[in-house]
Amino acid sequence: MSRTDRAVRMVAASPAAVYEALLDRESLEAWLPPEGMRGRVERWDPRTGGGFRMALTYVDPAGAPGKTTDATDVVDIGFAELVPSERVVQRAVFEADDPAYAGTMTMTWHLVGSDEGTEVTVTAVDVPPGIGQADHEAGIASSLANLASYVEAPH
């Protein structure tokens, strides 16, 4: 059965600034990896139909259940839809031998502007069963906290 995971965060920045951080290679490397991980973009094509490949490495691989290797998760992300300052729809496929991580997960980053900034809602559907829901939602929330810190800070 299909599972949906979700996280929401108010970010004190404009929808345009948040959207830009979703589509900038260096920005993604800085904020997308959740706590305890580092990320490296290996391929980059920021357009509808394009996408990127990211290697996420556990800072402390002891006991880390990497999907690709013991210490890494490698994911291919395709940009299914890009609507400036409103939404980014991604299709994510993990590089893994374990069938529990197989399939395509769709992640929608929905941006709604307000006087306080931008409410960012991340909805993941068709989450592979090997990814624990509580861990996944905590990871998304961690990435959203990183995103907020990144776009709220002067560069």
From TrEMBL:
The organism's superkingdom is given as Bacteria
Q: Which CDD domains match?
A: SRPBCC_CalC_Aha1-like_2
- Where in this chain does the record put each Activator of Hsp90 ATPase homologue 1/2-like C-terminal domain? 13-152
Q: Known Pfam families for this protein?
A: AHSA1 (PF08327)
SUPFAM superfamilies, alphabetically?
A: Bet v1-like
Family statement drawn from the similarity comment of this UniProt entry: Belongs to the AHA1 family.
Q: What is this protein called?
A: Activator of Hsp90 ATPase 1 family protein
Instruction: Write down the species.
Output: Streptomyces pratensis (strain ATCC 33331 / IAF-45CD)
